[in-house]
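Model the whole thing, not chain by chain.
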Amino acid sequence: MIRVLIADDQDLVRGGLAALLGLEPDIEVVAEVARGDEVLASVAAHRPDVVLLDIEMPGLSGLEVAERLTGVRVVIVTTFGRPGYLRRALDAGVAGFVVKDAPAAELAAAVRRVTAGERVVDPKLAVTALTVGASPLTTRECDVLRAADGGASVADIARSLFLTEGTVRNYLSSAIGKTGARNRAAAVSTARSRGWL
Amino acid sequence: MIRVLIADDQDLVRGGLAALLGLEPDIEVVAEVARGDEVLASVAAHRPDVVLLDIEMPGLSGLEVAERLTGVRVVIVTTFGRPGYLRRALDAGVAGFVVKDAPAAELAAAVRRVTAGERVVDPKLAVTALTVGASPLTTRECDVLRAADGGASVADIARSLFLTEGTVRNYLSSAIGKTGARNRAAAVSTARSRGWL
DNA sequence: CCGCCGGTATGACATTCGTCATCCCGGCCG
DNA sequence: CGGCCGGGATGACGAATGTCATACCGGCGG
């Protein structure tokens, strides 16, 4: 019996995945959590063989959780097949990476394969991740781009990061250049779609 | 036996919902589709009692599908509890509106209740929808905001909508005013979060 | 029939952005 | 030890953006 823990913030989705895996005779869902920061305690309590992690969760992101988890196989299950996400997931040592628009049958298969010691990654995604490459953005450029999301002005960003307006402009300019965008909004959009933020 | 059709573009989620409802003795999932524009044909073919519609799907959005569907009860199942979505859904005559972070048990309950002729809407969401109010944006203002998403310049927007740059600036200015934002990016963000786009 | 609203357009104006050059500092690598 | 890179800052300049007043047209409600 493969013991599985599921972490996803959307009740309906989490319940759905549990129901899906519950249909498999050799898989048992031993716990479900809705927040990233509850995963570690639950893993300690239930000792699952495999942990399914959504990336976007309150508390801690799935990627952050994956970095902290040891002694258990991790499969990232996410809506967004962003190259940067895959890269960070692999850096964090996950055993599998499945996107939510993959065929439903693939989930159970992935769980079995990582249990058997294999690494499960969508080949198409892997190619894209290699093609797009790693993030060229520095830490601060990321910070500034994140702060710029939602339409904050240079002054707003400067205040929220305790920087001078001029410095913020420099970082934005640099990030715009690196993303090949023509303004901050496009830069944010590009960086986000690549999983760089 | 309540016959249900599920429309959601993410295989894993759709499969999950199907598995979840499959556990109920009085509910039968008779069809699944992944695109909005496949729903009508599938409804004609399978004659379900209830149709579960995700909003964000390729082809047609769940809201557009709901407007076109007659003779069947519709439940919107969406990630985003945006007031504007709920409003448009109710205008389209749906019988239920469930957000994906609702408890899993609520889905089957919602299906049963709409079958019994009830209308199922999250009370909190209903309050927010009434509080926030309907969209103050005109059609063109929406168009321009949508086109502005992703960081397009005034010139880009003008080209894509066959307008003068000055006119685009006017619409943007007006939309920025109506959303209480301080620039176009914030306006897009606000309008989107309210479901006005 | 007149007025208002939405769509479209023009021109002028102040403000914000994006770019560039240049500077300082502290690590880290060769 | 001497670069080089990343973080941080300043000032200047041109381009893009946001605001406002004004105008014309077509439809719809009073």
